[in-house]
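Supplementary Data S3. Sequence and structure tokens for construct A.
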Amino acid sequence: MSAIVQHPHTHNDPHWDVRVDLAAVFRWSVKMNWHEAVANHFSAAVNEDGTQFLMNRDQIHFSRVTASNLLLLDANDPQTMELPDAPDPTAWGLHAAIHRNCPHARVALHVHSKYSTVLACLADSSMPAIDQNTAMFHDRVVIDGDFGGLAFEEEGERCSQLFSDPKKIVMIMGNHGVLVIGQTVAEAFNRLYYFERAAETLITAYMTQKPLRVIPDDIAAQVADDLESYPGHAERHMSEIKLLLDRDEPDYAT
């Protein structure tokens, strides 16, 4: 296949449902103030081994992403960056490496959201379990403390190796931001939403300069397991987001 495939604007597109979900989370991220001018990228695999994936175009604001204007890329095509409609080179470096090397990471969402990025800038970027949301990520976070600059191909390759443990679902990218993965768009976005909430709680608690009341590891582990398997929560979250967008910004699904 060619690196970038243009699809007709039709529901006959075999990846249409994934396109709609991915476009929806771009639009919702604007509402959450997680966009970064025309930077940052979300991607979602569409084939069995995860190497073909959808991603936003180069230099387009999240609020203008639609289901039909997402790129379809092949992580194994070395000619991708030579095409006239090539993606952002740092997006290609990071997301292609993830989809090439981490088949369990079918969806990858990268943002510089405020509180997650503050956490990524601390000498200790760990997330102690101090409430239900922070406990949700107990033993599920990998911290990258070796920021190597913009995520061109070499840096993207290095970052992708940090997801070798399938239990890790969040990468705190030191001095950079956060990267969240999942099996579906709904799962990954739900995790991103709750991780930013958790980071906000933790950073706010640090600001009080009072001692933290940390949940014991065994309880935190149980909370994380229970929330990970909570029936239908991520899917319902996604469904509600799309219902609200259907009302207010229906062009996202075109």
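Construct B, processed identically:
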Amino acid sequence: MRTIHAATLGLALLAATGCGTDASTASKAPSPSATSAAAPTSSPSPSPTPTPDPVFTVGHAWAFEGTIGAEQVSGNAAVLGYRHKVRSVGSAADESGTAGYVWAALDVKVCSDKGTFVATDQPWTLTYADGARIAPSSTTFDDFPKPAFPFETTLTAGKCVKGNIVFAVPDNPRPSTAAYAPNGLATPREWDISKL
């Protein structure tokens, strides 16, 4: 059931990232002079270098839109905060099986502006400068930061879900970004948490 719901939101985001055409790359009908059989006299121009996706600041809401089946959906996702070394009765080192691990909490919010979709904690990860990524903890303790972001919840138009997602992370180094990568989104969206 988790996979089906995660894919549902992914379809919406896939549609959002796949719609529209950049006028500079759209194919155009050849001009009359371009239909001659003469060989080109100059070498082709180099392909433009793609612009990297921005890394958002904490609090910035990234908007998305698309379709799920025949339903139009739109919404937004945001990282609202990050806390390192969250105290708990449970040990992050025990969960991870690695000494020196601590708990961290990522405060996030996902909203539906139009349509119905399922939001889950699974697309969120913490990323590190060396390329490592850490998924949310599969463990929960009563003293983890509240409110907790639910494992999954259905959002309808005008509704939001906000809460903390807890991770077992190394005490050092600290993560550089929080990434949101639901199924179907080609490029994860990232928020800079390096200074929090």
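The helical segments are 2-18, 92-96. The first strand starts at residue 55 and ends at 56.
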